[in-house]
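Workshop exercise sheet. Pairs work together: one partner reads the sequence aloud, the other fills in the structure field after running the prediction. Swap roles for the next sheet.
Pair: D.N. / O.F.
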Amino acid sequence: MSEPNPISSESSEVSVSIEDVSVRYRVPSEPIQTFKEYVIRSVQVKLKLNDFWALRHISLEIKKGEVFGIVGRNGAGKSTLLKLVARVLRPSSGRVWVKGMVVPLLELGAGFHPELTGRENIYLNGAMLGFTRAEMEEKAPRIIEFSELGKFIDVPLRAYSTGMWARLGFAAATDTPPKVLIVDEILGVGDEAFQNKCTARIASFRDLGTTSLLVSHKAATIKQMCQRDMWLDFGVLKVLGTPEEVLDAYHESQWPKEPVNEKSTDR
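Structure field:
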């Protein structure tokens, strides 16, 4: 397993800046069964809402070319933080600043049409991202080769397995190195060989100056790829440091060590 490259001391350029950010959701205090019921109770002013803070006063800077890991239990606020950086969510307070084009791999293949073939979806995805037909003619062969879908590239996506769908999604989303790459628990797609290809591609982006934010529950992945890491717990930044420091603190909180009871011996 290769060690992550250290951040160059010569490069102090900030790629992502998060300043005292909090995110609040308003959730009904009682179960709502349908959207119609929600609207009716809202109109009748019978809907009681409680505040739920997904993030509380988060501040950090991520440097250009850094691979930055985020760990925490489900519901800790990891996906909310990624959505802020991806510019699909605004903070309730504070400021998020991101430099350059962001490619968020929050859900591989989002926007693909199941009735279109893999090849047709490649061109559709490229058009949605603003690439010309000529540019896609150049990109498509690389995407197809990386996805390893072979003859299935001309089969409608409704016939694809989840793994095949994810392969095409990753290949299409990462063909062009972005300024900021957001990866949310998607490095488990496909077999081990394909996972290694995904990891190697992200590592190559790092060498080109791409900043990556990586969420993973796999400690080995965090240690292999990241220079720094953060532990989020109930929306609060608990520890920020090296992967070893953060993972040790996180694992200790989840599985605290039993105290050692030494038996005394009479002499």
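Discussion prompt: The longest strand covers residues 14-28. What would you look at next?
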